[in-house]
Specification:
A hairpin with a 2-residue loop joins strand 20 and strand 21. The protein folds into 2 domains: 134 residues, no CATH class; 231 residues, 3-Layer(aba) Sandwich (Rossmann fold). Helix 2 packs across helix 6. The chain is α/β, with parallel strands linked by helices and 423 residues long. The chain starts with 22 loop residues before the first helix and ends with a helix. It has 7 helices and 21 strands. The longest helix has 31 residues. Strands 16-14-17-18-21-20-19 form a 7-stranded mixed β-sheet, with helices on both faces. Strands 9-8-10-11 form a 4-stranded antiparallel β-sheet, with no helix packed on it.
Length: 423
């Protein structure tokens, strides 16, 4: 998640006749405008590369000691990037760079080449010039870039002092090859970042659930750029609910399969805490998994929020209308109509909706099926983000009043009628 600007009042120099301008006041006056610029950038944009900053393999530069003539020299081309706080990183001329890593492990290791902004005021200099260039630094590291670094290249480096290569296919680079696929491009900032985890049983039945979730989160970039999901999807089990802090981490928990859902007292209590904090639990169930569906009814009854069919709720319910509008709900991967029910922060989808978020084994799903399933999935992600945000804002403003005080008693007849049809 991108950091937001620091909430701190700005101080502006008050100009009046007779004001004495010294170095401190001059710097404070310019710092004020710099802070305003950075706040504006952070609020509306994402960091990344603006132009240029290509990376190419080069011969060993002249006058370099022979021990460094090892085929591990790069040249970073001129270009411009901008960091997370709005500082420009300008590489005005080509920079030669040597990859020094000597991987001692038995397995290849990922190497990151990153740029970061350097504030001239924080440099230690022997002499001070009237004008100083804003500069940058280039780092080679084995950990992912921080929020203040801009990645220009990755290399999956084999152990030993191996030479680097250009990839045969830029979309599928091999070991020891330049990899530019993860470079971030500066662009508009999304309104929301959604963090999702997959809840699995101790013996997972659905092996593709993480892959399908990943496809859904990738789809947000093109279908609804205002919403973005974290690339990493954590794998949890129901026992993780025994940790009450889980509600501070995830906007949405997703579980699928055929198994019944049974929670102990501690797990049920912490699930309620998670839902009261605005979290959303998305449960998917096959149409014929009657035992699982009945266990979900029991779960929502214990929480005091019985399930209700979306068709009986407002036509403008956000799951139906934001950001994509649905009259009839889409069909799942087996071409059966999806049924969707809600109970407070719990969403139940009856049908294999998630199977249509990604690629099936036979690559036979129609494009329309995948697209409509992904659009409904994005509605669910958007609902989860909105619910958590608004709930937490109200808790801050009302001293964390219990959400039960405003909950409505819903009839559980709609779901029971559906179960009767499935028997």
């Amino acid at each position: 998640m991108l950091p937001t600007p620091e909430i701190k009042a700005l101080q502006r120099l008050q100009i009046q006749n007779g004001l004495l301008i010294n170095a401190e006041r001059w710097m404070q006056s310019h710092e004020y405008h710099r802070q305003r610029q950075n706040i504006h950038y952070q609020s509306l944009n994402q960091p990344g590369i603006i132009c240029g900053l290509g990376v190419s393999l080069i011969e060993t530069p002249k006058d370099i000691p022979s021990q460094y003539n090892d085929g591990r020299w790069l040249q970073i081309q001129p270009g411009i990037a901008i960091d997370v706080t709005g500082n420009p990183i300008i590489v005005a001329e080509p920079i030669d760079f040597h990859i020094a890593a000597d991987i001692a492990d038995t397995q290849p290791r990922l190497i990151y080449i990153v740029l970061s902004y350097v504030d001239p005021d924080k440099l230690v200099r022997q002499q001070t010039n009237e004008f100083e260039k804003e500069t940058f630094r280039i780092d080679e590291k084995t950990s992912p870039p921080t929020a203040f670094e801009v990645e220009v290249c990755q290399i999956l480096l084999q152990p030993g002092l191996v030479a680097l290569e250009n990839p045969t296919d830029v979309f599928f680079p091999g070991v020891n090859c330049l990899d530019l696929r993860s470079r971030k491009i500066a662009c508009s900032r999304p309104k929301a970042f959604v963090r999702v985890a997959s809840l699995q049983s101790s013996t997972p039945e659905v092996t593709n659930s993480i892959a399908n979730l990943s496809y859904l989160l990738q789809a947000t970039n093109s279908l609804y750029p205002s919403l973005q999901g974290y690339e990493k999807i954590d794998k949890l089990t129901w026992t993780h609910l025994e940790n009450a802090t889980i509600g501070n981490t995830y906007d949405l928990l997703f579980t699928t399969g055929n198994q019944i859902i049974q929670l102990n007292e501690k797990e049920l209590s912490n699930l309620k805490i998670y839902l009261d904090k605005g979290g959303v639990l998305l449960i998917e169930s096959p149409t014929n998994a009657v035992d699982r569906l009945e266990s979900i009814i029991d779960l929502t009854d214990q929480l005091g929020t019985p399930l209700e069919d979306l068709r009986r709720q407002s036509r403008n319910h956000p799951l139906r209308s934001q950001p994509f509008l649905f009259a009839a709900l889409p069909r799942d991967a087996s071409q059966q109509p999806i049924q969707l029910l809600t109970a407070g922060g719990i969403i139940l989808t009856i049908g294999d909706l998630s199977a249509a978020w990604g690629l099936d084994d036979k690559l036979s799903l129609p494009r329309e099926t995948i697209r409509t399933a992904q659009e409904l999935g994005i509605n669910i992600l958007n609902f989860a983000w909105q619910r958590r945000q608004m709930t937490q804002l109200m808790q801050q403003q009302t001293n964390k009043e219990s959400s039960q005080e405003s909950s409505q008693e819903l009839s559980k007849e709609p779901l029971k009628n559906i179960l009767k049809k499935l028997e």
